[in-house]
Amino acid sequence: MTPAADAPKPASTVVLVRDAPGLEVLMVRRSAGMAFGASAWVFPGGKVAAADADPAWDELSDGNYDHYERSLRIAAAREVFEESGLLLATQGGNELDAAGSAAFDAQRGAVEADPALMLKLVREAGLRLTLDRLVPFAHWITPSFEPRRFDTHFFLVRAPADQIVRHDGREAVDHQWVAPQDLLAKRKLGEAKLMFPTRLNLEVLARSSSAAQAEAAARAQKVVTVEPKVEERADGKVLVIP
Question: What is the pLDDT of residue 35?
């Protein structure tokens, strides 16, 4: 069945965490020219592309998933590669190091322009995407009154230990590893722009003090779909979570 034209588009967002030594999360700042979330600090992510559902991915990635679930995870890995340069993959059974991931930098722009090239890159380089490391973290659907709607699945994953982030300079014009509570404090001071789902997911993440604790919490929880609504109250319209 063909989805309705105004149906939320499937999307994936990735919460990359590390210890340094306390818990830090990777945030990228979107370009001021972006149609959605301009200048906001966000987790890497984006829409699921048709190529992310190619059955060929079954042989090039870990985990036992149906095609929809795998497409969400492929999109997650692809968007992380495009925006940060990190590759959630192994080569010859080993996780890529800084030089290994940087060797593919020249292909990031091409993959962004044509997501189908991600499969070609992975196959020709002898890589295998480690999709089983992605832990479901949250599920948000854009409110119905918004003109651009997304059905976004958030995944938490520990960042590859030996790789170095290199934001793409196009969609992501800056990046930082930051303690969740520190970024939330900057937002209160007006020093950081955060979208509503980003802020609330940072608040959840801030309950953990290490990457291991954050991962364990994500694995233990039941992910509940969140679709904010607008309520009319005495003091005006308010965005609420049902």
Answer: 62
- CA-nearest of 112, 117, 131 to 74 is 131
In this model, does residue 209 exceed pLDDT 80?
yes
Instruction: Give the pLDDT mean for 145-159.
Output: 94
Question: What is the residue-wise DSSP string for the chain?
Answer: -PPPTTSPEEEEEEEEEEESSSEEEEEEEEPTT-SSSTT-EE-SEEEPPGGGG-GGGGGTB-S---HHHHHHHHHHHHHHHHHH----EEETTEE--HHHHHTTGGGHHHHHH-TTHHHHHHHHHTEEE-GGG-EEEEEEE--TTSSS-EEEEEEEEEPPTT------SSSEEEEEEE-HHHHHHHHHTTSS---HHHHHHHHHHTT-SSHHHHHHHHHHSPP-EE--EEEEETTEEEEE--
pLDDT at site 38: 72
pTM above 0.90, yes or no: yes
The overall average pLDDT reported for the chain is 94
